[in-house]
Specification:
By secondary structure, this protein is mainly β. Helices cover 0% and strands 45% of the residues. The strands form two sheets. Strands 2, 4, 5, 6, 9, 10 and 11 form a seven-stranded mixed β-sheet that branches. It has a four-stranded antiparallel β-sheet with strand order 1-3-8-7, with no helix packed on it.
């Protein structure tokens, strides 16, 4: 059973940076499309913010985070990281790590319906 555990959330000022991480247990991170979804207060969980496909495939970003967020995969540590720069109040949310064993052709990368494994989330608050 694959388990995902997020870490690294917290409070950050507008324009600041933060890195959150997700460690995978039960299988190798290379075997999954994996990345981050977020849920803002009082809203439904959004489509993916940043997803990297399995076996070193393409990485996709939502328009709202392009140029500011960068996802990386650390195979040696079985982790993925999300480096978030120039944070905005609209980035305030609980960030969930999610993984799918499906190949790129089988899912819409940023659509949460394709993801079978979810972490518990880590909260990020961006404020002045």
């Amino acid at each position: 059973q694959v388990q995902l555990v997020e870490s690294g959330g917290g409070l950050v000022h507008i324009g600041g940076s933060l890195r959150i991480s997700c460690v995978v247990s039960g299988d190798t991170v290379e075997s999954y499309a994996i990345g981050w979804f977020r849920q803002a207060p009082g809203k439904e969980r959004e489509g993916g913010s940043a997803i990297t496909m399995r076996q070193a495939g393409k990485t996709y970003y939502a328009d709202s985070v392009k140029g500011r967020f960068a996802l990386s995969r650390d195979s040696a540590k079985n982790m993925v990281h999300l480096q978030m720069n120039n944070l905005e109040p609209e980035d305030t949310a609980v960030y969930y790590c999610a993984a799918s064993a499906r190949f790129e052709a089988e899912i819409l990368p940023l659509d949460r319906e394709g993801y079978d494994y979810w972490g518990q989330g880590t909260q990020i608050v961006v404020s002045s």
